[in-house]
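user: can you give me the structure for this one chain? tokens are fine.
assistant: on it. calling the predictor now.
[tool input]
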Amino acid sequence: MSRHDLQPKADQPYVVRATIGWDRPLQTYFAQVFFRTEDEPDEGEALIWFGTEPGELLTAEAAIAVVAPHAEVPIGLADELDAEMRATIGMKDGQHQAAAKRSLFGSIH
């Protein structure tokens, strides 16, 4: 799994951070935006979260589109995410990952 924490845009005072990356076991990119809440003013709560289902976000650009309104996206991030995804080609689920997928999704595919 890859993970990049992004800084909020200056015009987004309620955003604490955004996180984006590649989840190899689910074969999806993921994107989260954490907002300040009364209960979590410093850490924030992920009120926007995509990429929790297998294959939900198939491209780095789709994940970036989720966070771009809220966070600064570094130049070249899509290429970096794609490289991180390609580096996982051919890797197989371990015993615990396969068991979790069967439990959550009924299959390891």
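assistant: here you go. The helical segments are 60-67, 77-86, 95-105. The first strand starts at residue 4 and ends at 6.
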